[in-house]
Amino acid sequence: MVDNGKELSYRLVPSTCVYCGTGCGVLLEVMDGRVTGTLPQKDHPVSWGALCVKGWAVHEFVHSERRLTAPLVRSGGELKETDWDTALAAVAEGLSRVAKEHGPDAVGFFASARCTNEENYLLQKLARAVVGTNNVDHCARL
Amino acid sequence: MTNSIGELEDAEVILVVGSNTTEQHPIIGERILAAVRKGAKLIVIDPRTIHLSSFAEVFLRPRPGSEVAYLNGLANVIISEGLEDRDFIASRTEGFEELKKAVAEYTPAKVEEISGIPAQDLVAAARLYAGADRASIVYCMGITQHTTGTDNVLALANLAMLTGNVGRPGTGVNPLRGQNNVQGACDMGGLPNVFTGYQRVDSEEAAAKFEAAWGVEGLSRKVGLTITEMTEKAAEGELRALFIMGENPMVSDPDINHVRQALEKLDFLAVADIMDNETLRYAHVALPAASFAEKDGTITNTERRVQRVRKAIEPVGEAKPDWEIVCAVARKMGASGFNFLSPEEVFEEIRKVTPSYAGITYARLGTRGLQWPCPAEDHPGTPILHAESFPIGKGRFTPCEFREPAELPDEEYPLTLTTGRLLFHYHTGTMTRRSPSLVREIDRAFVEVNPADAAELGIRDGDRVKVSSRRGVVEVDAKVTDKVGKGVIFMPFHFAEAAANLLTNSAFDPVSKIPELKVCAARIEK
Amino acid sequence: MSDLKDLVREKLKDGVDAFLCLKDEEGTLLPALITDADSPELELVEAGGARYPMGKILIDLLREYPGKRFAVLVRGCDERALVELSKLEQVDLDRLVMVGLACTAEEARACGCTRPYPSEIALGEKAEAAPGRETIEEVEALSEAERLRWWKEQFSRCIKCYGCRNVCPMCFCKDCALENPHLVEPGVIPPEFPSFHVIRALDMTGRCVDCGLCEEACPADIPLRSLYRKMQEIMEEKLGYRAGESPDEKSPLSFLGSEQDIEKLEREQ
Amino acid sequence: MAEESATRNEDDIRILAFLCNWCSYAGADLAGVSRLQYPAKVLDVRVMCTGTISPYFVIKAFQEGMDGVLIAGCHIGDCHYLKGNYMTAKRFQVLREALKFLGIEEGRLRLEWVSAAEGEKYAEVIRSFTEEIEKLGPSPLRRKRAEVGA
Predict the structure, then answer these.
(1) Do A44 and A93 fall into the same domain?
(2) Same domain, yes or no: A39 and A95
(3) Is residue A78 domain-resident?
């Protein structure tokens, strides 16, 4: 067979399933820069080499066509693609303006049970230390 | 969880209540079945007949919303038959007499009247639970998503303390946390009343500590708003800007029509998400976030195990990890203290301000994680909480009175709607419904109807029906099944095009502010 | 006995493009593809300790990189899988160099496979063990009705994770019968008996190489391996075939055969 | 000629017969036109060759509540496609043993070679198979909805 010139690139990356709160150990199969499969981590202290149907499929949404791939800003009633700097400036401006005009408690933050600890930490720090409100919550109750 | 997942196999009796474990936490569910194979007896209490029911020694199918009644009933039987653990009660608890008085009226006969659980079955369950040396309680949203959610949990805690099932392997009161990092989001202060590690925002000491750590002044000491309250205030025009990171309230929250009105009213809405979703339609700015495969970080599972996710690939398109997004927004707002170069640097700050995480480092986490509390780098982590004492010293029995759910069936809406998840999907389906192997299993909303109700309404299996409540109406396929009792209907809430949460009630528990997603009044028509 | 590290280096220098084996990553053993004889990853390679579906990984690698040659560390089961996969036209043995690893006596005993070593051993020492037939014997001792009850009880725990199929080195079909809604009702647990599990057992007949990864991956501890093992015993007894043993002989279920074969089969019935 | 019964009882046994188009189906036809008497508890499925019958179909038949499954095709050597029934013979051996190991009575699955000229044999096969299945009674695999958990 003819070499297609692709550089060999295959590895397994240990991670944690991101569906339910069980926290099973997964190995993500990565080939040519794409996540192509999932295997169970054999020595994981919760899942011991087993996974459920969602865990086995946890890589499948990663390259979905429904992924957001560019920042969007609403103009003329529609969300339009823009660059990161513009989008971030719009967020900073939007939050600052409301906080300034109506007070910090007119601003709210939804943290996320789907994001990492680090991200949740940073979001509540942003709410509390930068905007000045304790209006931060996530879907723990849902 | 007070205890660890692996310990379930050490239990003699496992009481599973309000948790469809083999579907919602499948790997934990199989642990329960492994325990049963090793001889453990299983008690299942659920308004639906679930996969676990067929393995149960005792299966109770109560009316949704009657939790406090039957849990008090179990306590009533335990006390009246003298099955309580007197040594444990004397040495580790207080308030027993008040509890005894409070549960006295919840006789099996009265509980049968309220919940529909046959009196003799309730007695059998109580004897089984109290008769074990090691009994574990496992519960989930079927307990918490009620206007009496807090009381439901306290009533479970009463049972565990009453029988001394605390602090030892194979015992405990074990909530199964739904989302992969709901535990971590709480631990990290993603709540309106606490900083990280449950340090209260209205504690002068804690607030001063964080002011010093963050190099800021004047942190608000006022407890903030929960999600349900924020929605309310947004609808009233008091909350005017919202930043949503990785949530989809337009499917997940109760009473979606109301959520939409709230979101539409906002002056400014920013959403960071990995997927195009229903909430995005109301956003002024949408930011593409990196998925778990595209970033480093930690998440904390239901047994408090802090674990790593690792970057496997570059973010797709122009997506960025949320940690970078939040830092960039903060910097744009002129803040300092957001110049992190990696999640590990963020984690180093977290452990400085969070005693329960203080001993955890990325290096120590490896591929197996660590369970908090882990106060020092030489601490092995904590698989079992409350082994010696409770955080408040003695465990306090809290008497709870049965209250009816916020909305009861009536002539107009004669059925009780309860909601939940399916094995093959997750929450609002933004991930699972983009997953071919899961969509292949099921990709359509449905409502389960008891054959007796179906016959009365002239509904056959597979019919297209309208399900309505005071808040909305959706069209779904009917599944006629005796998995649900007469008068009860069940809908999964994953499916945005027929969202169960258009129907659910946003009335919430006064303490935990959790909405009553598990009970509302509804009607079915062809 | 040579060292795995040396073997990997040697093969890479001999002209294979990559070596598939296990490595230790933060204390966890996982498959790794070593492409460079000077890579620091070489220090982390490990021969034993965990098993993963190397055959399955190789199907993907051989397909994705059509011009490349691979070396792979194989146990007896891995070798059988690759041999059978080659007959099923899923791997090209000409592009594979198998480096044999014999299972330790302890591993062989715990595993109970019929041949816990590859045809050529480069690492470890050959150990034999009695085939693990305890579960098969337990089932065969039961009456018909008890046997049915026993299996139904085992399968009642199934949560349809598809782990048995997903991890199986011998499962590669694009269209899987288990996903055919006419054969198995989708979206229901436990999957109805006999459809899901018996269909899988039939698909394993003449194909299963008794690696046991299915049972290791099963969250419900269903004795799948014993079921598939029994299917191989039936295959051997009735049709004289064992998967993965000879590179030339194909499964009698994959070709029609001769009239003499069938007449013999009917006579012996 | 098949004996008609007006009503179907839940306890009535049900048999599925896969008949090859060239031999056994023609044999059944011959039994019919010859007005031979045999029981009518059999549902026929006409297939071009028994070699096309996947073992899945047999499993599916049991799953759907059949109490017995008959496969009938050309005699070895007479296959319209020369060797199609070789595969049937091999698969049958494996399948029957598998069913036995799972606790499904082996008598519930039968393989017969019936040619187009063997109308009488066809009637006899149906008679004896029906009798055997009646003796075994309803299949333990008949769908019982209540048993299905989730």
Answers:
(1) no
(2) no
(3) yes
Contact: B30, C25; criterion CB under 8 Å: no
CA distance B506 to B498: 18
Chain D, nearest residue to B423 by Cα = D150
Strand blocks (E) in chain C: 18-25, 28-34, 45-46, 70-74, 96-100
Is there a domain that residue A67 lies in?
Answer: no
C190 shares contact with chain B (CB less than 8 Å)? yes
The reported pLDDT for the residue numbered D7 is 53
CATH of domain D15-143: 3.40.50
Interface of B with C (CB under 8 A): 22-23, 26-27, 29-30, 33-34, 37, 51, 54-55, 366-368, 422-424, 437, 440-442
- Contacts C188 to D, Cβ<8 Å: 148, 150
Q: Number of structural domains, chain A?
A: 2
Q: Is residue A2 part of a domain?
A: no
Measured in angstroms, the CA of C80 and the nearest CA of chain D are apart by 21
Partners of D146 on chain B (C-beta within 8 Å) are: 482
Instruction: State how far the Cα of B167 lies from the Cα of B160, in Å rounded to an integer.
Output: 10
Domain ranges of chain D: 15-143
Helix (H) or strand (E) holding B488: strand B488-492
Predicted ipTM? 0.93
The answer on pLDDT for D9 being more than 70 is no
Taking 90 as the threshold, does the pLDDT of residue B474 lie above it?
yes
**Annotated domain spans of chain C:** 4-111, 134-257
pLDDT per position as a tens digit, A34-45: 999 999 999 999
Residues of chain C in contact with residue D93, where contact means CB-CB under 8 angstroms, are 234, 238-239, 265, 269
Q: Is A50 part of a structural domain of the chain? A: yes
b or e along B356-395 (b: 16 or more beta carbons within 10 Å of the residue's beta carbon)?
A: bbbbbebebbebbbbbbbbbeeeeebbbbbbeeebeeeeb
B279 has a chain A CB within 8 A of its CB: no
Same domain, A47 and A103: no
Which class for C206: exposed (0-12), middle (13-18), buried (19 or more C-beta within 10 A)? Answer: buried
> Each residue of C209-256: pLDDT tens digit?
999 999 999 999 999 999 999 999 999 999 999 999 988 899 999 888
Chain A residues close to C57, C-beta within 8 Å:
10, 29
Comparing A137-141, B343-347, C149-153, the range with the smallest average pLDDT is: A137-141
Phi and psi at residue D50, to the nearest 5°: -65, -20
Question: Is B50 within 8 Å of D150 when comparing Cβ atoms?
Answer: yes
C45: which residues sit within 8 A by CB, 6+ positions away? Answer: C4, C5, C8, C21, C22, C23, C24, C32, C34
CA atoms within 13 A on the CB side of C179: 16
Same domain, yes or no: A46 and A89: no
- Using a CB-CB cut-off of 8 Å, the residues of chain D touching B53 are 149
| B330, closest residue in chain A (CA to CA) | A126
Residues A25 and A79 in one domain: no
Q: List, in order of start, the domains of chain B with CATH numbers.
A: 5-176 (3.40.228.10), 178-223+289-379 (3.40.50.740), 225-288 (3.40.50.740), 415-525 (2.40.40.20)
Closest CA to C59 of C170, C134, C204, C159: C170
| Cβ-based neighbour number of residue B42 at 10 Å | 23
Q: Range of A89's domain? A: 72-141
